[in-house]
Amino acid sequence: MVLTGPAQAEGLRIAFWNVEMVRKGPGLLARDLLRGGDPALPGAVETIAALEADVLVLGGFDFDAGGLALSALNQHLPRPYPHLLPLRPNTGIPTGHDLDGNGRRDEARDAQGFGTFPGQGGMAILSRLPVVTEQSRDFSDFLWRDLPGADLPPLPDGAAEVLRLSTTGHHDTALTLPDGRALHLLTWHGTTPAFDGPEDRNGRRNRDETRFWPLLMEGALPYDPPGAPFVLAGQANTDPEKGEGDPAAIRALLADPRLQSPLSGDTVDYGGKVGPLRVSYILPSADLTVLDAGVIPAPEGARHRPIWVELALPRP
User: Fold this and answer.
1) How many CB atoms lie within 10 A of CB 98?
2) Which of 30, 167, 168, 267 gives 68 a disulfide partner, CB atoms 3.0 to 4.6 angstroms apart?
3) With 60 as the cut, is the pLDDT of residue 259 above it?
């Protein structure tokens, strides 16, 4: 574990980074990482090493069923992680419906989450804590229409019966703390609230993807609320003050008394008219003690900045 803080207390460092390792076809990321020829690999390895995270959540990382890409990345790290968990996303999974109304049903915008192939731009967890599979949950097949107060746009007939809320995924991954208890890591990556039309399909979905978490915590969904302690980490893709999208849901999440928000400031610079935004978040449950938190620079050529939070190991 990492030792930081004024009293040099033993802490647990959790980090999130949208690494944007996304390719145009299945297996291409694994190929590039196995060959070691990816031009972004040296910067990614250096950045991950600098994070010194005990648990690292990656966004924007292509999924493959064998976990080959994640394993290849891990092998390049100076301190490889013993526990790897690629999270199967909804991206690229066909819905069978013409969601964007252009007369075709087989394009990236017609998938459960935008993607040219199943698994494009998924999420992954690298951990020094063991994963407790039997206590972990995947909410990614939860239908959007079943969210209380769901704000669905107009959809083709039958689409609401299959369209999932998660564009990438909502997960509850249980990790074993040194004292044997479980820490629940709640992760998600919301859609960008742009690149749609007047129906605001992406904006509505982005808002509801964030709303999933307070509804889960208050027991308003067909799942048990997460047991404490827990940490919510991921990319909401909405800034509470600027940029596109409705900030109401992320503001409500940041103000939720069951959570803490130890970080502030921009986490990405999209350049141009969009510019810097705060889109990535790590929100520990209120019962956890935060020792420190920070944002580190993105490597050359990358847009997203990694964020981290240092927690005191919770006492029994």
Assistant:
1) 17
2) 30
3) yes
